[in-house]
Specification:
The chain is an alpha/beta fold. The protein contains 13 helices and 17 strands. The structure holds guanine and fe (iii) ion.
């Protein structure tokens, strides 16, 4: 059933400064597409099946623009190092376990179950270098109903031999086999995933750019996260004048094929201009930036320049799958940045954070992440009545509080592209 009406407090973004809230209004889904938000329900929709969520908070569902599924088991652990030390000490050792398909099965069952129960409806996900485990992850996501881009990770240098492609040629063959197996899912799509420049040789990047052109694939990677990493990339790629050029010289920096770059904490003017010019998406991951002491990305500058920007959990450098938490941390980090580092960029507010979590990141999937007419109909229904309070609060205040309390627990139903993933209470 992909046509119905939902009644409740409808919250959605039109732009970074336009957070629209219709208290006890109606949002209509027709063939999986949003047919508008109404204060009074137009008569023509009176015959549609009706979900009465009066008083509940209704949001379009979040996009997690950057998350590492195999790192989920060690979230909240090993947070005392910076990026490169953290990768070498904790991350590579955990990811190596996914050569064992039974370990992958157990771990990905937990990840997908928790993702389904969160407020996230869409995600861009890193797997590991292992094709079998990555395919398993895609199958689990496909049957969950979550919409996702998933990448087999590519890496062939500066990493342990137990977690490295045998050669660029072997990586090409394995990656192509994985791509061709991944093209026919309904909910899940492949995305090229060179881990980051320090672990990807020129030979590997060349091979991946051939696959990108052959299969018209988007790409996801990491960019300018940590100052030591940036210095290392300068040494590894002496022919480039900034980090992003090491992707763009292989056509993997937006323009023809969409690209997501996670972090961009320390991007300079040339890198930022190229991201803007080539429509690169930035995945801002504030919890990760904090845990790995990377710094705080200048997100307001990106938003004001019109660069496409969404939020990422970056599990396990971020500890939580909750995009509510990512929103709160984006705001809080921007306040510290403003106070301690740069008074020219005002702190973010709820409106900007909600935009990034919904419409900003959702744009990577096309028309997703809003209840404006014509958008794919994703909806998350939240019953916040368990959070007791003596005073009257309007819907905007209740939404603000959900963000700061990072409440993903009270979700009573979730819809993706008009399909119901679950509903916890009986409604007609
Ligand atoms: N850079 C390269 N790999 C990773 C990773 O797994 N997490 C983060 N945060 N940064 C990276
Ligand atoms: Fe990451």
């Amino acid at each position: 059933m992909r046509r119905f009406v939902i009644k409740g407090n409808i919250c959605y973004s039109k732009s970074i400064n336009e957070l629209c809230i219709t208290e006890n209004g109606y949002v209509v889904c027709e063939d999986g597409i949003c047919a508008g938000v109404y204060k009074e329900l137009p008569e023509c929709y009176g015959i549609f099946p009706f979900y009465d969520y009066t008083n509940h908070i209704i949001i379009p569902g979040f996009t997690d623009l950057h998350v590492h599924a195999p790192q989920y088991p060690f979230r909240g652990l090993g947070m005392d190092l910076e990026l490169i030390g953290w990768l070498n000490t904790h991350t590579f050792a955990e990811e190596a376990k996914y050569s064992d398909i039974e370990y992958a099965r157990k771990s990905y069952d937990i990840f997908v179950e928790d993702l389904v129960n969160s407020a996230t409806t869409r995600a861009c996900i890193f797997g590991t270098i292992h094709t079998q485990a990555t395919t398993l992850l895609m199958e689990k996501l496909e049957s969950s109903g979550i919409k996702a881009y998933v990448g087999k990770v590519n890496m062939d240098r500066n990493s342990p031999l137990y977690l490295q492609e045998k050669s660029a040629g072997q990586a090409f063959e394995d990656t192509e086999k994985w791509i061709t197996r991944s093209l026919n899912y309904e909910n899940v799509k492949p995305i090229l995933t060179p881990r980051f420049i320090p672990t990807c040789s020129d030979g590997l990047m060349e091979k991946l750019s051939i696959l990108q052109k052959k299969y018209h694939l988007p790409v996801q990677s990491h960019l300018s996260e940590n100052t030591g990493e940036i210095k290392w990339v300068k040494e590894l790629c002496p022919d480039t004048s900034f980090y992003g050029e090491a992707y763009s010289k292989y056509g993997m920096f937006g323009n023809e094929y969409p690209a997501i770059m996670a972090h961009c904490v320390h991007s300079g003017g040339d890198e930022t201009s190229l991201m803007k010019k080539q429509n690169v998406f930035i995945a801002h991951c504030p919890e990760s930036n904090t845990n790995l002491s990377s710094g705080i990305a200048p997100v307001r500058a990106y938003l004001e320049l019109g660069i496409k920007t969404g939020l990422g959990s970056d599990i396990a450098a971020g500890s939580s799958l909750s995009i509510f938490k990512a929103m709160a941390m984006a705001i809080q980090c921007s306040k510290l940045r403003w106070r301690l580092q740069d008074q020219s960029l005002a702190p973010l507010g709820i409106s900007e954070a909600f935009y990034m979590a919904t419409k900003g990141g959702g744009e990577f999937f096309g028309k997703a992440g809003s209840f404006e007419e014509g958008y794919e109909f994703d909806a998350v229904i939240i019953d916040d009545s368990t959070i007791k309070h003596p005073q009257k609060l309007n819907a905007r205040e209740r939404l603000e509080r959900l963000v700061y309390l990072a409440e993903d627990k009270n979700i009573v139903a979730k819809f993706v592209n008009g399909k119901k993933l679950f509903e916890k209470t009986a409604h007609s």
